[in-house]
Amino acid sequence: MSYQIAVLSGDGIGPEVMAEARKVLSAVETRFGLEINYTEYDVGGIAIDNHGCPLPDATLKGCEAADAILFGSVGGPKWEHLPPNDQPERGALLPLRGHFELFCNLRPAKLHDGLEHMSPLRSDISARGFDVLCVRELTGGIYFGKPKGRQGEGDDEEAFDTMRYSRREISRIARIAFEAARGRKNKVTSVDKANVLACSVLWRQVVEEVAKDFPDVTLEHIYIDNATMQLLRRPDEFDVMLCSNLFGDILSDEIAMLTGSMGLLSSASMNSTGFGLFEPAGGSAPDIAGQGIANPVAQILSAALMLRHSLKQEDAASAIERAVTKALSSGYLTGELLTADKRSEAKSTAQMGDYIAQAI
Amino acid sequence: MSYQIAVLSGDGIGPEVMAEARKVLSAVETRFGLEINYTEYDVGGIAIDNHGCPLPDATLKGCEAADAILFGSVGGPKWEHLPPNDQPERGALLPLRGHFELFCNLRPAKLHDGLEHMSPLRSDISARGFDVLCVRELTGGIYFGKPKGRQGEGDDEEAFDTMRYSRREISRIARIAFEAARGRKNKVTSVDKANVLACSVLWRQVVEEVAKDFPDVTLEHIYIDNATMQLLRRPDEFDVMLCSNLFGDILSDEIAMLTGSMGLLSSASMNSTGFGLFEPAGGSAPDIAGQGIANPVAQILSAALMLRHSLKQEDAASAIERAVTKALSSGYLTGELLTADKRSEAKSTAQMGDYIAQAI
Ligand SMILES: CC(C)[C@H](C(=O)O)[C@@H](O)C(=O)O
Ligand SMILES: CC(C)[C@H](C(=O)O)[C@@H](O)C(=O)O
After folding, report:
1. Does B247 score more than 90 pLDDT?
2. Of A142, B33, B251, B292, which has the maximum CB count within 10 A?
3. Where is substrate bound in this sequence (chains A, B) (predicted)?
């Protein structure tokens, strides 16, 4: 099998962690007899520098011609003075999501054995562990709803955004959450604010309807404010969390932080054809870029998600995940995951990539 | 001085914790020579049972005639099957906020000395303590914005809500946050999603303008998703958090949970005349109602906020707060704040009230 991948490494640590993901993918090619062709495109800050905008036409065309997008990370202090719409994150990610209708965002987050001390949670809570999959709707809601803008003058000037969801949008993302739950603990927690939002009332209704097709999956509803709280007390009781765009943005980041190891978390954003964008959940970390100390695991796991969801190479995907688990459980770790007394055992970005590639 | 208070005890533990707040207020009356007159009105579930709606006309009229509203808590399983709009919380709180234009919600939350073990945070993080005041806009944004509703049919049926903020609404709440910061650590963190929302772009702009009148206060901006994360890692670095209605709903609850002691947290919702509604931040806790074990401190501290903000009796307010601190730091605590081995020392709801009243 031969595949075409658009590689958008971006800024900060993007290029260095991407190099390790490529190493691991090449081990997978050999082992599973795949042929993966890569084309690199500028995105984010580097694209602003080279082409004057965060998502140049050539990049978009390259993505259109590919089977999947492997994305690094974008942004940094150099571009923070730009107006929000022109900044790397907003100016690249939102148009990509919109253009390819990447409505389904999967953000898995679990506390790895042996890394409980990284969690900001109290030790008796983190000792119970957790493994949550956040399923976030990514092309609807208040991110894209029209009208959005400003009107009026002086003190009466006002701004407005529209949160909008159709039955179709809600049911397609709900279905994905229920299907994912079947391969996990068979539980979906749908997050809304049905005591205030009309969108949430429809959301709850449609989710209930979809649930009828999944009698083996338990469904519960929780308000966003309460979800934010319960995740702190009993994260182990959640399995799949089904969220609208805005609530998913907030909750997936809260859950990521609860693991305490953002460098391990990856994210998949897909459309209905299986095409997708795969990226680490963390940012471009400009403060540590270029030092060879960034954790490449999130980028490597993004490649695994790409193999699974877009290239339908489940065996190759799980081989990568097993190799990562092996590294982590052998204590083969980058510095940020080690306590101060063990910092001298820290592995470099390249050492991590080598180890994982070899373990394939 | 003589005052008229509308007492809306509501459901669950509401009436029993309210009784203790009344005890403490009566100690304050004697000591500071005040005359406080109370009239009780039904609200929430009990009002649904007695009058068919969660906020009867008589209750609203009684509140109009009063100098302040002392609110207990509403809701419980008995009324959960009702449509969202008719439920006790939504059907009582939102109309009260709207009717009296209670645009300013103050939610102070700190980790009390000696109660660090209650926090769900890792011990080295909770050991640093924190003291955050959430200033939440309460009558604007997506809660009240029009249009809000549904249209279309079948799969195309859609729901919509409107987030809307005017300069006037933003600047009046921002001013309150900056003024509050002056009596604290001189720092305001304004929470928004300016990389996505038009409302947030205006929010950020107006907050910057207001900040010019407070050169002694440091202002920083943070995205809501990042705020949710940073509160878990470094809660001690925040002072005043300035939030829109929806983001304040989410963040104030996250912060409350970070203290691990919801029974200690109170909340003030005020309008521009100083009139306000004062209530515990926690819920009606129907599971422990009627057992005499509920913590009355949040209700007692709500009475202190009422004295300070609506009745302008600062001395009486601080006397209550000092008495509460005395109780807590002497280890005079209700059961939920004690570790299992000390549970036998737990004080009852009434004992807490007696102790605090006596300490006035
Ligand atoms: C950059 C921003 C627009 C984006 C979002 O809010 O979706 C980011 O926070 C994310 O979660 O990928
Ligand atoms: C009951 C609900 C409408 C309310 C809100 O969201 O404002 C509650 O969560 C609160 O924070 O007081």
Report:
1. yes
2. A142
3. 97, 107, 136, 225
